[in-house]
Design a protein that fits this description.
Elements lengths: L7 E7 L4 E4 L5 E14 L5 E13 H10 L5 E14 L5 E14 L9 E3 L12
Parallel strand pairs: 4-6
Antiparallel strand pairs: 1-3, 1-5, 2-3, 3-4, 5-6, 6-7
Length: about 130
């Protein structure tokens, strides 16, 4: 079988503070949103801006670190992989959500001292979760 690659790296600002929950097995999971922006000039010289939102999911000890240290508006670097969940609602409609499952997080702005902090190679676990 051929190998594939699913790696995503973003730098952006938290759109909301992190929310931590626990799975039925007791594993911590933290979710938050990150906005990235880009700008460009069209052929006629007009400036355009675009914001892309990422739903980020962190597991285990990285989930706990994100919950303790991140806040709305803070700039972060997130590295991980894309994962698309699918589910059917009570009416039988199928829904999809694409998320960035974080493997690494670097705080580019610290809430207290503006010192760069790095949290590397925290193991992630693929689990199903109810949100």
């Amino acid at each position: 079988m051929s190998r594939g690659l699913n790696k995503v790296m973003i730098i952006g600002h938290l759109g909301r503070g992190p929310e931590m929950r626990y799975t039925p097995s007791g594993r911590p999971v933290t979710t938050f949103s990150v906005a990235t922006g880009r700008s460009w000039h069209s052929a006629d010289g007009e400036r355009h801006e675009e914001t892309e939102w990422f739903h980020v999911v962190a597991w285990g000890s990285l989930a706990e670190i994100c919950n303790q240290h991140l806040h709305k508006g803070q700039q972060v670097y997130i590295e991980g992989r894309l994962h698309t969940r699918k589910w059917d609602d009570a009416d039988g409609h199928r829904h999809f959500a694409t998320e960035l499952v974080a493997r690494e997080m670097i705080m580019l702005e610290s809430a207290r001292d503006n010192i760069e902090s790095t949290f590397n190679n925290v193991s992630e676990e693929e689990e199903s979760y109810p949100f």
